[in-house]
Inverse folding.
């Protein structure tokens, strides 16, 4: 029975898929570590506002918003940097680079003497995250089979969310100075594993004319051995030849992406859904709330411990991401996006009403309601808007402009990250938590309507097609 299960093409432990799975797990070590850096801030920021465990406090709204938003500025930098280098250096070298700024973050956290150290540390964390969100989806889409590509791409956000929960826990329960040295083990293991086990993408090697190396890489990721059945080898190599022909046709112009390619009919059809994806992903507040979750609960009218509630949310977030890995290649991207946007809209609008009435009425007996509503928001948001975001973004663009268009889109997304992280605390202060939640819920409701009419299903789409 297990033999039949492992023989299924969409089984991750299928013989053909094993090195693809190993590669996905290895490169997501940095995703886990990045998530720890994100989640760590939420409980730590509350500690730094009073009775700080280090030599300074972070009290003003200006300092709080800039500690949070420097991650977005770093993300833009990382997007542009990796987007520029990816085609020249290849995925492996870019993956190795990600460990460097992330490691510097934890050195700055440990040796921090003022809030400026945290600004720079969060900037460096953003460079790693921004670069990761460029190279991971593109690299995985190039080495993965179409029937499991969505699952592997969704593992990126699952890994980040595992790290976020870890960050919530260590930030709440461990001493400030113990955390950096513990977390530094992850980027070190990641760097060594990339050197030992990761090979360059066969698509990249074909693009730069290294056909023999591309064939070896292809055989590695598809787990093709010289001793395999000759018919199986021939079928696999036909697949490689098809990839090679598709990437090298019109060889003299294969790297010449022109303005005309960006205004072709397939490209123009992709821009509207891509823009709404970006807006929904960030202005629904899902990522922003992860960074300020403890503050949200402390202002929600709930009497539950904010840090405990935050840890519960971290666990719910992992569940949502895990569901994405199970359903992304079964239900498809569009259905998960519709369920996600509708659920986020309902949850946030309801959360806004609770906090509004909590200002007037005694709702202490209903203190569990904010936790339930935020859990719904995070769970449903992660099964689509977060978990499927990078999968959809990469798949939605035509082949010729895919890498550049996805890179540009993620730069725009990182700009939105910076904007949201900067203005969210200010909106909570000046508008109040209720109006802030209603605004985010309204964005999600609009996105639901748009996706219902204009988002096309891309499940099973070949990466060699428009």
């Amino acid at each position: 029975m297990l033999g039949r299960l492992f023989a299924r093409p969409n089984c991750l432990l299928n013989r053909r898929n094993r090195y693809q799975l190993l590669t996905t797990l290895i490169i997501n070590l940095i995703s886990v570590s990045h998530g720890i850096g994100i989640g760590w801030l939420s409980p730590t920021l509350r500690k730094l506002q009073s009775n700080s465990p280090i030599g300074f406090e972070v009290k003003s709204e200006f300092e709080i918003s800039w500690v949070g938003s420097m991650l977005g500025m770093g993300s833009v930098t990382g997007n542009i940097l990796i987007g520029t280098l990816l085609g020249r250096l290849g995925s492996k070298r870019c993956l190795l680079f990600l460990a460097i700024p992330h490691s510097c973050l934890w050195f700055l956290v440990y040796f921090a003497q003022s809030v400026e150290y945290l600004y720079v540390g969060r900037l460096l964390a953003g460079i790693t995250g921004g670069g990761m969100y460029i190279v991971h989806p593109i690299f995985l889409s190039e080495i993965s089979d179409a029937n499991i590509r969505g699952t592997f791409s969704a593992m990126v956000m699952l890994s980040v969310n595992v790290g976020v929960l870890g960050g919530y826990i260590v930030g709440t329960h461990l001493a400030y100075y113990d955390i950096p040295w513990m977390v530094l083990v992850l980027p070190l293991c990641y760097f060594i594993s990339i050197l030992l086990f990761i090979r360059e993408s066969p698509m990249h090697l074909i693009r730069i004319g290294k056909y023999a190396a591309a064939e070896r890489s292809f055989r590695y990721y598809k787990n093709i051995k010289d001793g395999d059945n000759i018919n199986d080898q021939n079928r696999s190599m036909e697949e490689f030849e098809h990839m090679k022909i598709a990437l090298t046709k019109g060889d003299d112009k294969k790297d010449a992406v022109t303005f005309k390619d960006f205004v072709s009919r397939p490209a123009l059809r992709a821009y509207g859904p891509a823009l709404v994806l970006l807006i929904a992903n960030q202005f629904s507040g899902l990522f922003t709330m992860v960074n300020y979750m403890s503050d949200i609960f402390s202002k929600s009218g709930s009497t539950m411990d904010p840090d405990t509630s935050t840890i519960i949310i971290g666990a719910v977030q992992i569940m949502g991401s895990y569901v994405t890995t199970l359903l992304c290649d079964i239900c498809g991207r569009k259905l998960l996006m519709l369920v996600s946007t509708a659920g986020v809209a309902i949850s946030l609008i309801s959360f806004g009403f609770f906090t509004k009435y909590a200002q007037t009425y005694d709702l202490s007996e209903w203190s569990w309601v904010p936790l339930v509503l935020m859990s719904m928001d995070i769970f449903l948001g992660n099964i689509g808007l977060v978990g499927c975001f990078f999968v959809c973004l990469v798949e939605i663009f035509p082949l010729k402009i895919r890498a550049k268009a996805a890179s540009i889109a993620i730069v725009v997304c990182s700009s939105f990250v910076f904007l949201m992280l900067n203005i969210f605390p200010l909106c909570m202060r000046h508008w109040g938590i209720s109006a802030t939640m209603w605004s985010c819920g309204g964005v999600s409701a609009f996105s639901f309507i748009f996706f219902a009419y204009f988002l096309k299903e891309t499940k099973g789409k070949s990466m060699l097609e428009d």
In short: Residues 8-198+261-454 form a domain with the Growth Hormone; Chain: A; fold (CATH 1.20.1250.20). The mean pLDDT is 84. The radius of gyration is 22 Å. DSSP finds 23 helices and no strands in the chain.
